[in-house]
């Protein structure tokens, strides 16, 4: 057991160290001589980035190093904005509420798990921010949360307050429990079991929310009047309806898991019927069939590059989709939805150049500025610009090359992943493991 | 009469043109002006490949092109040998979550009698997608249980399953349990525990099966020689396991943890099996033993997390480089059907973490050909080999590279697929 713990400590050290302000040198660092892919302001073939107190202060050539500032040599390397995963479920102590269909009160923001090692996995792939979401077991799931992957910090410090408040919806096979085997004596099937039912149950809840809001509005109006009736009682508070009211009042936006074109179009009709905003469809493997409608309604998509054919409704997902939709004008991001794929989002983004014909900058946008816009944080992250927060990833080769590797990940000007340090730690651990043991080493 | 022959021949040509999609049939094809990366031998700038009867007749810089040859001008393109996926479920799995379309996993634990070739869906939606990314051959394997069945080596072209066969039975698939935990999904790495399996138990079970198969075979042989002896009753398991004991059929052992790998090496030695290992996630810890035992390794998908956190975040990525440096013969696999097209990217990922780039290319071409004993036929661009050729606008391990032509046994393959069909269909939407 001791050996196991030691290994964890050693292997985690290059991540953990980063949480200590060893490399951040008082919040100030300079990245020197890298090829800078700003995403929004073009490419600087060989340039520097000055970070002060976690904010990008200057980007350019030959920036003088302020006294005390740490220097990171990026010669021959590629510097990009920290990667943003628009749809994942990492760093949570729970994602789904299976037995009930409607659970908007179940907020994943209340169960953020800052100790999830998936955070380290993500950091090793240049990811600095995630939209970590309620699962897809419920037609109306619950609120999601946007986190910066500041490993070692308490959960509250990971949450990004500037982000849009988003509410998870889900349609199709998952919510109608299509892939569930019903066992004898097991729980009875949950309503809904069809796409008709899924739409109907969401509509029902929206009607309830509207009624609930009307009741409260009436109460508030009467209460504020000069002569409120003596018998005036406040309506019963309903946590589910409170969340849906926020959606209907425009204080939240919908993020909706869907696969088939029909269910997406019908959800758009629901949004119109009740006046709420859909920020994004998730997975949306048939979005290419309704790209025009998505553009017209200004709805983005957060999708896989090519993970498909794992269930019936994913059977017509084509690798061309992300590129095709992006060219049509849909705001596209590539997501991981996985604690594994999250460390190779840059590989997935590069596939849109082959399938879909995107150029380098368009492809890189799918994992940087586009998800930032979808999450409402494009003013603070998503590209390398003066004034933005210093969330940065450094790659040894062009990040869209299949041969590339993430060498460093920086959040708010602090280094959270450093491959060179990891290799050093590993070598030392190997040496120690090989050294002759003395009795003193015995536990 | 001549007219009838002419009409018949013309009709046949039309039909061939229709079925094979795109080009007129040819007698001799010359691919000219290509940058040739033969994998075995030096690169040739501005070279020519001459194809006749599905084979490479000549390759080089100064090649005389016969007057009747059809010429394909490949200026600006690179010619590579077709890639070989060394473990996948192409043709056995359509929609992985829909049981009705899944044929790679038989029930029960001991199934040496099942053959992948006999369930192979030749018109799987996934095969043309892989082919259009430059993969021209694949080992299609059954999985599950202890003895999963017989894998098959196919070319990714053909109108029936049997037309696709390169080796009907390529290996007997044997599986040690995977290292538990630490796999993809929502969670992170490090939740797994070092393999809790008891390899000794599995080894004992296998040895028992082998012993039975040998004695069954002996009784059969004795009965054949001596009519006074009874012919043993048909024993399916022994019948189909025996070829691996006779050395006619290699075994491909899925084995993952360090401890299991060591046990499997021992088993292979004791039973004198012709073995290939698959998966081998902790192979980097026993690279020298694998080299000493001279067992080639087919790596599992690199789209995975390290089996245990203490292996380090990059252990799956650097595994290939360490094994290769130790002298172990390696090959990559997709271990997939729907993402079998991604084979080259597994190789490139390993190259990002220490594997020599040229070795990475070999590990999807000539090394698998050698591992499966078909290197006289494929795996490189050399005179006399099958014309399995890819023409690409760049390095075939790079994601952004476009594959422009795929020839399998000299046939100019149709590169359209489910992706392109659906894309074209909805591009027409008005």
Helix-strand blueprint:
The complex is a heterodimer of chains A (443) and B (430).
Chain A: H1 2-19, E1 28-37, E2 43-52, E3 55-60, E4 70-73, E5 78-81, E6 83-88, H2 118-123, E7 127-132, E8 140-143, E9 145-148, H3 155-158, E10 166-170, H4 195-224, H5 239-248, E11 253-258, H6 261-274, E12 278-283, H7 291-296, E13 300-303, H8 321-328, E14 332-334, H9 345-354, H10 360-365, H11 369-374, E15 392-395, E16 406-411, E17 414-418, H12 419-434
Helix pairs in contact in A: 1-12, 4-5, 4-6
Chain B: H1 2-19, E1 28-36, E2 44-52, E3 55-60, E4 70-73, E5 78-81, E6 83-88, H2 126-131, E7 135-140, E8 147-155, E9 165-175, H3 199-225, H4 236-246, E10 251-255, H5 258-270, E11 275-279, H6 287-293, E12 297-299, H7 315-325, E13 330-331, H8 343-352, H9 357-362, H10 366-371, E14 389-392, E15 403-408, E16 411-412, H11 418-427
Parallel strand pairs in B: 1-4, 1-5, 6-7, 9-10, 10-11, 11-12, 12-13
Antiparallel strand pairs in B: 1-2, 2-3, 5-14, 7-8, 8-9, 14-15, 15-16
Helix pairs in contact in B: 3-4, 3-5, 7-8
Task: Walk me through this protein's architecture.
- The complex is a heterodimer of chains A (443) and B (430).
- Chain A folds into 2 domains: 1-82 and 383-443, Urease, subunit C, domain 1 (Roll), CATH 2.30.40; 119-381, TIM Barrel (Alpha-Beta Barrel), CATH 3.20.20.140.
- Helices cover 30% and strands 21% of the residues of chain A.
- By secondary structure, chain A is α/β, with parallel strands linked by helices.
- Chain B has 430 residues and is of the alpha/beta class.
- In chain B, strands 1, 2, 3, 4, 5, 14, 15 and 16 form an 8-stranded mixed beta sheet that branches. In chain B, strands 6-7-8-9-10-11-12-13 form an 8-stranded mixed beta sheet.
- Chain B has 2 domains: 23-82 and 380-413, Urease, subunit C, domain 1 (Roll); 83-378, TIM Barrel (Alpha-Beta Barrel), CATH 3.20.20.140.
- At the A-B interface, helix 1, helix 2 and helix 9 of A face helix 8 and helix 11 of B.
